[in-house]
User: Fold Lipoprotein B from Salinisphaera orenii MK-B5.
Amino acid sequence: MFRRLYDLVVRGAGHPRAPTWLGVLSFAESSFFPIPPDVMLAPMVLADRRRAWWFALIATVGSVLGGMLGYLIGALFLETLLPWLRELGYYEGYATARDWFADYGFWAVLLAGFSPIPYKVFTIAAGAVAMPFVPFALGSLIGRGARFFIVAGLVRWFGPVFEQRLLKYIDWIGWAIVAAVFIAVAVYQLR
Assistant:
């Protein structure tokens, strides 16, 4: 099922309405859909490198708005969703996200933009633990924006070779960025 969805998203990247679909995909992925927008963003940037920053902005705005829906879902419907999270294998990610909010708050949302744990898990967890909304929205904007602008920039500059490597190693790259930010925060707090 996920492979078919992935293939559909990649094929849609060449369509004239692809920017609209990118916004919708980014919105949906932040609250309920399993395919990350990177798989559509990268081919779109390759197809029209001059519009790379525009595509990254569309993905960012869609993702932040979808994250707000995820926040609302977590705030209002968490008890209903818990069995579903367990069944789909997202519960451990949810528990991790919940713990990160307790320890790091704003920084957890910012890091979630790069984490290989699905972003929807963080948005739902933020609403479930009643994280203050403004830091949540700001962390979403910075974290998701940084991710999409970095992806668009790298694909724009390095082309098809980078796209293939990016998609192959996206989880490793995400964890490396999360580790780097954790180290930076730890060093900052030790000062």
Notes: The CA atoms of residues 166 and 173 lie 8 Å apart. Residues 133-190 form the longest helix (58 residues).
